[in-house]
Amino acid sequence: MSLIAPTLQSFFTERLVHQRQASPATVASYRDSLRLLVGFAAEHTGKAPSALDFEDLNTEVISAFLTHLETERHNTARTRNNRLAAIRALFRYAALRHPEHAELIARVLAIPQKRHDKAIITFLTHDEAQALLAAPDPGRWEGRRDRALLALAVQTGLRLAELTNLNCGDVTLGSGAHVSCVGKGRKQRVVPLTANTAAVLRTWTRERQGLNEDPLFPTRTGRQLSTHGIQRRVTLHVNAATGHCPSLAAKNVTPHVLRHTAAMALLQAGVDVSVIALWLGHEDIRSTQTYLHADLAIKERALAATTTTSANPGRFKPADPLLAFLEAL
Predict the structure, then answer these.
(1) Is 184 a residue of the active site?
(2) CB contact at 8 A, 80 and 68
(3) Band of the pLDDT at 303, cuts 50, 70, 90?
(4) Which of 38, 41, 95, 297 has the lowest CB atom count within 10 Å?
(5) Catalytic status, residue 259
(6) Are 225 and 218 in contact (CB under 8 A)?
(7) Is 291 a catalytic residue?
(8) CA nearest 88: which of 111, 54, 115?
(9) 256 is catalytic
(10) HEC secondary structure over 156-210
């Protein structure tokens, strides 16, 4: 038997960091998934995590772990599939180092992804977005910071990790105002700023007075605002804005919903889907086409442009009295 600990460690230090040069977000996602798996297997077998071998991570244990994620931790099928993707990546790496476990590894790699429903995306209407932007208290430092953050998120559609990683030097104001960020796959992109967003950021950066390498949206102590911190601030301001815009109460507003809001605003303004894909940093345009399904106005315009067919309303009326009696039952 082979212990899995050395392979697990080299998977992170050799494969992810040196060979793939994976982003910190990818490393953190894989770390969390495999930490949960090792903890589950250790509890299942009664062994210490460092004493686990490959036989302790067979298909039965991993299948039980995936079920545990959904039933005990209440993870969605999408999250379950993300955890499985991390496990598969580890076992594909292990296949090169441990041919003696080829059969076990093949069985693990054969565990399928779980199909799940794809719900229509949630986004904010113009009035809801305006209510959210007005919610932060301009009399407090945190309120002015949050207003600039929300304005940037709603207009540019940056991902949550892209927002937290922004530094003061990533924002260019004045003529051709824009923000530069590094998205998924280490792809750099530039997103233009509207005059209103640029004005809000100009006021904030003037107050912020940070160096180019300083976080654009810091905590009170000057550290980078975390993803969880931004999520909490969004929830706080959504709750405050609900009093002025009650329709917000029916929506689960997360930072990613602000990204959807930016995309829908572009789509409703008539911007081509391929341009929106570049704006959002989508590698595959099919990811952007989900916004077409969410925009009812586009479907209504398509319906108005078609020639309607005529169909007589009314009910079937049987001529025979016996059939009429049976139909009435």
Answers:
(1) yes
(2) no
(3) low
(4) 297
(5) yes
(6) yes
(7) yes
(8) 111
(9) yes
(10) HCCCHHHHHCCEHHHEECCCCCEEEEECHHHCEEEEECCHHHHHHHHHHHHHHCC
**Sorting pLDDT into bands at 50, 70 and 90, what band is 86?**
very high
Structure tokens at 41: 């297997």
User: Which entry of 184, 202, 244, 251 is annotated as an active-site residue?
Assistant: 184
Is residue 74 flagged as an active site residue? no
Distance of alpha carbon 193 from alpha carbon 174, whole angstroms: 10
Catalytic member of 15, 80, 237, 291 = 291
Catalytic-role residue among 159, 208, 237, 260: 159
| Structure confidence by residue, pLDDT tens digits, 35-58 | 999 999 999 999 999 999 999 999
**Quick check: is 126 catalytic?**
no
Strands 188-192 and 171-172: unpaired
| Tokens 């329709």, located at residue | 247
**118 vs 135: CA distance, rounded Å:** 31
List Cβ neighbours of 13 (8 Å cut-off, separation of 6 or more): none
Q: List domains and CATH numbers for the chain.
A: 5-109 (1.10.150), 126-305 (1.10.443.10)
At 159-176, the pLDDT tens digits run: 998 999 999 999 999 889
DSSP one-letter string for 257-293: HHHHHHHHHHHHTT--HHHHHHHHT-SSHHHHTHHHH
Catalytic residue, from 44, 282, 301, 315: name it.
282
CA distance 24 to 27: 5
Catalytic residue among 101, 237, 259, 260: 259
